[in-house]
From TrEMBL:
Keywords: Transferase. This is Glycosyl transferase family 2. Residues 1-41 are annotated as: Disordered. The keyword Nucleus does not apply. The keyword Disulfide bond does not apply. One of its GO terms (molecular function) is transferase activity. InterPro entries: DPhHxTase, Glyco_trans_2-like, Glycosyltransferase_2, Nucleotide-diphossugar_trans. Residues 7-19, 29-41 have a biased composition (Acidic residues). Residues 51-206 form the Glycosyltransferase 2-like domain. It comes from the Archaea.
């Protein structure tokens, strides 16, 4: 039985998150897929085991701040990988901050991020965006959750309201989560967040197919295959620089990806 650790929508004691069984049942026999991962007693991971990865495209306004934050929070011990298709100074700034830069022709969000998550050989991979919207100060908490047994830790931007997010985008992200929850039969709160931590074997063992909708796919496939997926509430800041995603065209592509991935994962169970 797959389950997701998510914020309790009715909690009143101020706790950030609680364990929620996705079906609300505890006594039924397990129905996890045969390829669901077995729990292992891995040694505790540190920042030396962490890679922070991102796709970058003309983010010279924010990339230095993001990389400074990662270095500060991890004492410079985390590896940073940027897959870049920029025409501005983004790759130069990234290299100046010690990041590994893989240059490729711009082919969309998913192509860059897929390359980024599959490149590192460290056992824990964290994705983030390079626009300074995600709190790098939470990296220790994400690593703690992995050490606690999580396979995927997903940052929930909407839990605290995401007031810095444009209202149209916020409505869209809430709609994506509702659609995914309906199709999966399991409640999720933020399917399109860019900040997640993964055990390396998760990103290596699953074949990723989506482009614009990759962020949703990176949550849906592990969850529907029985991995331990947990949502962690995070603050979301106003972005530096201009957004590259058209909200209408991009939103339609994400919704299509959610439907496609959910149906594929249901069919693979037969």
């Amino acid at each position: 039985m797959s389950s997701i650790t998510a914020p309790d929508d009715e909690a009143s004691d101020g706790a950030d998150s609680v364990d929620v069984d996705a079906t609300g049942q505890t006594d039924e026999p397990s129905t996890e897929p045969d390829d669901a991962p077995e729990e292992t007693d891995d040694a505790e991971y540190t920042f030396d085991d962490l890679s922070v990865v991102m796709g970058t495209y003309n983010e010279e306004e924010a990339i230095g701040t993001v990389l400074d934050d990662i270095e500060r929070v991890t004492d410079g011990r985390a590896e940073v990988v940027c897959v870049d298709g920029s025409s501005d100074r983004t790759p130069e700034i990234a290299r100046e901050h010690g990041a590994t830069v893989i240059e490729q022709e711009p082919q969309g969000y998913g192509v860059a991020v897929r390359e980024a998550v599959l490149t590192p050989d460290r056992p824990v991979v964290v994705t983030t965006d390079c626009d300074d919207t995600y709190p790098m100060d939470r990296l220790p908490d994400f690593l703690d959750a992995i050490n606690d047994g999580a396979d995927v830790v997903s940052g929930d931007r909407l839990y605290h309201g995401a007031k810095s997010m444009p209202a149209f985008n916020r409505f869209g992200n809430q709609s994506f989560a509702a659609l995914a929850s309906l199709l999966m039969g399991e409640r999720v709160h933020d399917t399109t967040t860019g900040m997640r931590a993964y055990r390396r074997e998760v990103v290596q063992d699953i074949g990723w197919t989506e482009n614009t909708g990759l962020s949703a796919e990176l949550l849906i496939r592990p969850l529907m295959r029985g991995y331990d997926v947990r949502e962690e509430p995070i603050e979301y800041a106003e972005r530096l620089g201009e957004t590259k995603l058209d909200p209408i065209e991009g939103g339609a592509a994400i919704a299509k990806s959610i439907v496609t991935v959910c149906l594929e994962e249901r069919l693979r169970r037969f």
